[in-house]
Amino acid sequence: MKEKMASFVASFGLPRLIITGFLLALFILAPIVGVDLPMQITNVINRFSWNAILVLAMVPMVHSGCGLNFGLPLGIISGLLGATMSLEFGFTGPMSFIMAVVISTPFALVLGMGYGALLNRIKGGEMMIATYVGFSSVSFMCMMWLLLPYHKADMVWGLAGKGLRTTISLEGYYDKVLSNFLQINIGKVSIPVGALLLFALLAFAMWAFLHTKTGTAMTAVGSNATFAKAAGIKVDKIRMLSVVMSTWLAAIGILVYEQGFGFIQLYMAPFYMALPAVSAILIGGASVNKATIMNVILGTFLFQGIVTMTPTVMNSVIHTDMSEVIRVIASNGMILYALTRRSEVTR
Amino acid sequence: MSTKQQNAGKTALNFLRNNTVPLMFIIICAVCIPISGFSPSYLLNEIITRLGRNAFLILSLLIPIMAGMGLNFGMTLGAMAGEMALIFVSDWQIWGIPGVVLAMIVSIPFSVILGLICGKILNMAKGREMITSYIISFFINGIYQLIVLYLMGSVIPIAHGSIKLPRGYGIRNTVSLLNMRQCIDNLLAIRIGGVKIPALTLLIIALMCLLIVWFRRTKLGQDMRAVGQDMQVARDAGINVERTRIISIVISTVLAGFGMILYLQNIGNLSTYSAHSQVGMFCIAALLVGGASVDRASIGNVFLGVTLFHLMFIVAPQAGAKITGDSMIGEYFRVFVSYGVITLALIMYEMKKRRQKASIGEQLALAQKEEEQHE
Amino acid sequence: MNNKRKWIFRGCTLLAILLIAVLMFIVGRGHTVYIDNKTLEYNGESYGALQKSEVWVGGERLSKLGKRDRTMTTVIGNSFEMKLINTVNKGDEPTETTVKISLPYGWDGILVNIPGYLANLPQEAWMTEFIIEPTAEEATDEEETTEDDIPMGDF
Asked: For chain A, what are the domain ranges?
């Protein structure tokens, strides 16, 4: 019996166990300390729906051996370009969301290909360079948001008439367009079915892709690049494909996030956005070279659960908001744990 | 082309390749300085001040590079240790130079503990040191906030309400260091026509440089260089590789703690929660601008880097304002350049590594071919 | 033998560092000294403020105090020396006095009363601890920002 427990702990991962336990404790505590549990559950599900696609974007690159995609901001920027241009061209309502997706795609493809080409030439040092490529591009775009010729009244600064604002409200555009679509209310818990459907669709598509010939090739490249090359797989092309997929998913991911959050956030906002996604998938049980869809779902749920529940429950219990500090320690600790493992295999 | 011309061309190309970043920066500065309109004496004064402020911190980065640990993003840990020491010394009302000395001494145990933690974790992530040290700095930042924001004032006694938050525990966002402001800078300051030279600070930095040169020749220093060259070879030669790596990180962290105290004594004000993160990033950028790379850095790189990087830093906002009419462009530009330079240096390092591996492979193949021909 | 020497050497360095730390503790203690030229009531007796008192610290004039004036200076260390040029009543000849006080370690702010000192009263009469009440403006300080600060500021 003890052996079974030990092997379960080893395969599930001790940090993951701690985090799950912590979240369970929060859920149990919540009604006891007077926190509105149905509302919190709604919040958790909502935040899950906003973030899940960004976390899903991690999967292709992990499979192909490019490591954790710290360069997520590149894809996010493509999404931001799509969003701002869709608004600039005058689309409103659900159409603006669809157009945002349409316009982001070419940007994501181009940026993804450039990023992929770069990563192919620096095999082995992907993660560090990805981080800084992400930072450089965000700060570069900071300059661009000021210079690009946007004119729409509710996007630019009022006084000067040029230069985009830091946050742009999506009311009248695609605010909650997916969340409200097919929204189901069970008692006091409201579920944003639309957004969840989109995630399910993309997740299923990813799962299906990974079982195609190209998908298995990608996994092969990640497991053992030399072996894959010997088997005739074009390693560089597959890696490039994974990077482009990841970048495009990130673009969609930020658009879904925006529709849930209600605002487009420019300038320095995307700067650190890779880290939550990275730690979410790691919390879900992924490692630097292995990630499954289950990791995405579990990880996003656990991460967003902690982010949502900790402030409210802690506040009610000890009247101090330590949530920010806990989030920093937990999420970065998780990434550290993953970085210090040898290659591991989890469910 | 004759062989001589070919060789000259190759050396020129190599020179360009090895020094891309400083050359780029010289061009950027050459363009931006006249546009910005600052006077030479103003720039000179600023550069000397910033040199005194930052050089020690950047010197702390040299040791891990020597030991093959790459860019030590964990220097932030030393900065945090220095900050905690300063908070205590501030609370104990120890002022002036004695305050600075005491803060340095108090920071040592903090730095050593943090350095040991960092070193141990890095040993568990061999081959991924840089990204790991980068995440460690975030992780320990969380722990630092836990201590400074929640434990100080409640569990850890802090006597003065003036540095605590209104709620009674936790340290404020800014802690005034007015009573030790520039005490080291001013002690032997030499003023020449509008330029203030903080002689004592520069003396301390010079001493540190000498110390580093001497250290390279000691057994420990030689061990570190061996570990940096090739861990397996060093291990076979009997060097305790893990221990040497940890020591290099601990030394770097302690030095970063001292450097942070010197930095803060110049500024006179402690931004409790943001000072250390800024410092880490900008110091590494400055070192890279000076021509250092992930596996090789010299003292010359430090000084060249501080000068060029800070020149760019000072003139960019003004130049940006004059060119585009918006000063924010200049500010974003200098942030972009700081990150861009690190990105570029990292990329070039990786590509060089692959080129070297490829050339070793080629040489091996060549040697094999010759052997076959001889048979 | 070599090992023992190494440990002795390390022990001595540690000891030296600790001694320096203690020294810094003592030598570096900072105080703010407030100097009053106010009428002092003590034991029923009243010691009048001087017409004018010039306070000189470190060779430079710190301040000119009229009746009921107060000035302040920062001091590092445990002793404080100042020179006073006093004019007791209007029209008198100014007289010079050198004041040397040792400052109690535990007090941050120290209030010195000139008339009391000049009257050679016991130390507790003219030297008291000065405690600053935190002002209302400090109470409205912003809440702590623990956001991952994006480096944008000057360096």
From this structure: 33-338
A272: nearest CB among C146, C148, C152 = C148
Of the residues C2, C13, C155, the best mutation for testing chain B's interface (the one with the most B CB atoms within 10 Å of its CB) is: C155
CA B104 to each of CA A90, B265, B276: distance values in angstroms, whole numbers, following the listed order: 60, 11, 16
Measured between alpha carbons, how far is C155 from C152 in angstroms, rounded to an integer? 9
Residue ranges per domain, chain B? 3-374
pLDDT in tens, chain A (347 residues): 778 877 777 777 777 788 888 888 888 888 887 778 888 888 889 899 999 999 999 999 999 989 899 999 999 999 999 999 998 888 888 888 899 999 999 999 999 999 999 999 888 878 889 999 999 999 999 988 888 888 887 788 777 667 888 888 888 787 777 777 777 777 777 788 888 889 999 999 999 999 999 999 999 888 888 888 888 888 899 999 999 999 999 999 999 999 888 888 998 889 888 999 998 998 888 888 888 999 999 999 999 988 888 888 877 777 777 888 888 888 898 888 888 876 543 32
Count H helices and E strands in chain C, helices first.
4, 10
Q: Are C17 and B108 a contacting pair at CB < 8 A? A: yes
As given in the structure block, the two tokens for residue B210 are 């000498």
Question: In 3D, which of A125, A61, A78, C139 has the Cα closest to residue B345?
Answer: A125
Residue pair C31/B96 in contact by the 8 Å Cβ criterion: no
Interface check B132 vs A, CB under 8 A = yes
Chain C residues with CB inside 8 Å of A324's CB? Answer: 146-147
**How far is residue B97 from each of residues A163, B60, B286, C103, measured CA to CA in Å?**
48, 22, 28, 19
Q: Residue B234 and residue A193: Cα distance in Å, rounded?
A: 59
DSSP state of B163: G
Residue of A nearest to C146 (CA): A324
Domain A33-338 has CATH 2.60.40: no
| Partner A contacted by B120 (CB < 8 A) | no
Domains of chain C: 30-132 (2.60.40)
Show the 3-state SS of C60-77.
EEEEEECCCEEEEEEEEC
Pick the CATH number of B3-374 from 1.20.140, 3.30.30, 2.30.30, 1.10.3470: 1.10.3470
Interchain CB contact of A143 with C (< 8 Å): no
CA distances (Å), origin B149, targets A43, A79, B143, B156: 28, 36, 10, 11
Work out the minimum CA distance from B156 to partner chain A, whole angstroms: 17
Query: Which segments of B37-128 does DSSP mark as H helices, in order?
Result: 40-59, 62-66, 75-91, 96-123
Q: Do the beta carbons of residue C103 and residue C80 sit within 8 Å?
A: yes
Of A271, A324, A328, the CB nearest to C150: A271
Strands (E), chain A: 167-169, 183-186, 189-192, 263-265
Q: Which residues contact A56 (CB under 8 A, 6 or more apart)?
A: A199, A202, A203, A206, A249, A253, A293, A296
Exposed/middle/buried for residue C148 (C-beta within 10 Å: 0-12, 13-18, 19+): middle
